[in-house]
Specification:
heterodimer, A: about 260 residues, mainly alpha, MetI-like fold, 11 helices, about 75% helix, about 0% strand, B: about 375 residues, alpha/beta, D-Maltodextrin-Binding Protein, domain 2, 5-stranded mixed β-sheet, 11 strands, about 15% strand
């Protein structure tokens, strides 16, 4: 066997395992039948049902707002935390660093319970505010870890050089550190958004009477059965995601080309 | 650098894609009893009643959207439809809210027993529910609310046996017939162990809720004799296996029976001669409900026979409204209403002591390994 064939087979198997279920969901979103194991012909009826379902869209919008708010606030807190921790050096730093990543180690169900009890205790009304606080909490570690890893790999001399040339703390942070850690922040935000968008367990405990999120809505269909409408929604979401991926890689490659041209000229 | 950035982005986005859909994929196989998802209505209407909002707390998909919309346009009460996954979650949230926040909750019988015991439900005023007399008496006066002071039933699960007469030659009249050698490797059951262990208990003439550990253990021995007939034990989509002919007979959840019967009207439904197990879902108003009047209005609204019939056809559980039965179409009648000669030999599955519970789970584990699952 030639060298290089085996890795390709391995890659192929992984890709199939990853993407076959998604392909099936897309396929069955066009199925006429209500029963998912039976193919009864092509139909767009579930898309029609989906677009008529106001409640589902409300839940989707709630989820998107929640994801954006909590990932952005986590980005601010997480980045400041990581930068601050990186610069300071004190006894017990390791312990604090460990504690700050705790929210992703603690089982979600326990976090959910704790939040429920805590918010009830301080009398905060359940709703979008409690959702954002809870989600921000478990999003911070993702940002913190990403940014921290990036900072460790950075050469301290960049910041030192800036200061040498007379830049203040703030100026050095904004002009030197921030651009260098930006990729880490952005990928942290994406990861946080995905985590927030996906969460059922914590949300179900801290949500109020008029903030249903999409995952809660889907998950609580357990009792009565999932409708193929959800397949249709999933297909649309996959489509949007692929669009984003293509867009970001297109922007990336465009910049690369212009940079190279600059270097040449 | 940019390359790494875009690679990371792609990775993250594909993660997002996977996590966004991961929870759905596994569920697409669950099939469905419903046409449409119901949910909160956003129709705003002028206020006619003193309460203009109803906070309804139950599982997703319990009501057809049109019923919710019509209620809003008729009464001007807007519905906030919020969901919980398990009964236990509902109890926790209700405890945290100290019986407030929610106006109307629909949950399973056993948890309502706890809710009432904790004082989190309020006594109903029957004078505010003009259609109260429509409720089927069979579902009244049950263990969770013996005097019917707190609850109004909404849908019941009834333990039946379903089989395909074209492939099963023996006649099935009760649980004992499932032990027949003719059904070898041809039977599917759900993983609700109190239900399945209960079949053996019922054959022995015992109660579902016996506290006697030795009786449960001998039921376990009886159950082991059933193992050769078991083809599969699963909760999800077992009706598909009956429809496709993978199994000839099944003991399954009520909503699954409805799906199976809709897909194949030739299936036979048997009310086991040994006695019938029941589970009831019921509505109650929490002790500190902010809009109790809206909750009364809603309960009364869905007790109307025509509206009720629509709800139960959508839900796929047994109709708990006697007056509504005449409006349920023929297609559904077999499996949403009890037969007229129903003798009322019923028993509900209740909470048992932890010793009995332990014995149940022990015999269930032995049965599963004997059945090769």
């Amino acid at each position: 066997m030639k060298k290089g064939k085996l890795p390709n087979i391995y890659l192929g198997v992984i890709l199939i395992i990853m993407y076959l279920p998604i392909a099936l969901v897309i396929l069955y979103s066009f199925n006429y039948s209500k029963i998912s194991s039976v193919w009864e012909g092509f139909s767009l009826r579930w898309y029609e049902a989906l677009f008529k379902d106001k409640a589902l869209f409300e839940a989707l919008i709630n989820s998107i707002i929640l994801g954006i708010l909590s990932s952005l606030s986590a980005a601010v807190i997480g980045t400041l935390g990581a930068v601050g921790m990186f610069r300071s050096n004190f006894k017990g730093k390791g312990i604090i660093e460990y504690i700050s990543t705790l929210p992703i180690m603690v089982p979600e169900i326990i976090l959910g319970m704790v939040f429920l009890v805590f918010f009830a205790l301080i009398g905060l009304p359940f709703g979008m505010i409690t959702l954002v606080i809870a989600h921000t909490t478990f999003c911070i570690p993702y940002i913190y870890m990403q940014v921290n890893a990036r900072l460790v790999g950075l050469d301290r001399s960049y910041v030192e050089a800036a200061k040498d040339l007379g830049a203040g703390e703030l100026r050095a942070f904004l002009d030197i550190t921030l651009p260098l850690i930006r990729p880490a922040i952005i990928s942290g935000i994406f990861l946080s958004f995905a985590m927030s968008f996906d969460d059922v367990v914590i949300s179900i405990f801290v949500t109020g009477v008029n903030t249903n999120t999409l995952p809660i809505k889907i998950y609580t269909q357990l009792k009565t059965g999932i409708t193929p409408e959800i397949n249709a929604l999933c297909t649309l979401m996959v489509g949007v995601t692929i669009l984003f991926v293509l867009l970001s890689s297109w922007i990336g490659s465009k910049k690369n080309i212009s940079q190279k041209q600059e270097e040449l000229s | 650098m940019k390359k790494i950035l875009s690679l990371t982005l792609i990775l993250i986005l594909s993660l997002f894609l996977l996590s966004g859909c991961g929870s759905n994929e596994s569920n697409t196989a669950t099939g469905s009893a419903t046409n449409d998802t119901s949910g909160e209505t956003s129709t705003s209407a002028p206020s006619a009643n003193s309460d203009t909002v109803l906070n309804l707390f139950t599982w997703e998909g319990m009501f057809p959207q049109e019923v919710l919309d019509e209620f809003t346009s008729e009464t001007g009460i807007e519905i906030n439809y919020v969901n919980f996954d398990y009964d236990e979650t509902m109890l926790t949230k209700l405890e945290a809210a100290n019986g407030g926040d929610y106006d109307l909750i629909i949950a399973d019988d056993y948890i309502i027993e706890t809710v009432i015991a904790e004082g989190l439900a309020q006594k109903l005023d029957p004078s505010k529910i003009s259609n109260h007399s429509n409720i089927n008496e069979v579902y009244q006066g049950q263990f969770y609310d013996p005097t019917d002071e707190y609850t109004i039933p909404y849908g019941a699960g009834v333990q039946t046996i379903v089989y395909d007469p074209s492939t099963v030659t023996t006649e099935i009249n009760g649980y004992a017939d499932l032990w027949s050698e003719d059904l070898k490797d041809n039977l599917g059951v759900i993983a609700g162990y109190r239900v399945i262990n209960g079949m053996a208990l019922k054959i022995m003439g015992e109660s579902y809720n016996t506290e006697d550990v030795s009786v449960i253990e001998s039921a376990g021995e009886k159950l082991l004799e059933l193992a050769p007939n078991i083809r599969l034990i699963k909760d999800d989509n077992i009706q598909d296996d009956l429809i496709s002919g993978e199994i000839g007979a099944a003991v399954m959840y009520t909503s699954q029976v409805t799906m199976a019967k809709l897909a194949n009207p030739d299936l036979e439904i048997v009310y086991p001669s040994e006695g019938i197990g029941f589970g009831i879902m019921a509505q109650f108003i929490p002790s500190n409900a902010p809009h109790a009047d809206a909750a009364y209005a809603f309960m009364d609204y869905i007790l109307q026979p025509e509206v009720s019939a629509k709800c139960f056809e959508y839900l796929g559980y047994y109709c708990t409204n006697l007056e509504a039965e005449q409006y349920i179409s023929e297609e559904f009648k077999d499996f949403l209403t009890l037969p007229e000669d129903f003798d009322g030999e019923t028993e509900m599955i209740q909470n048992v002591s932890s010793e009995a519970e332990e014995a149940h789970s022990k015999i269930w584990t032995e049965f599963k390994s004997a059945a090769g699952e």
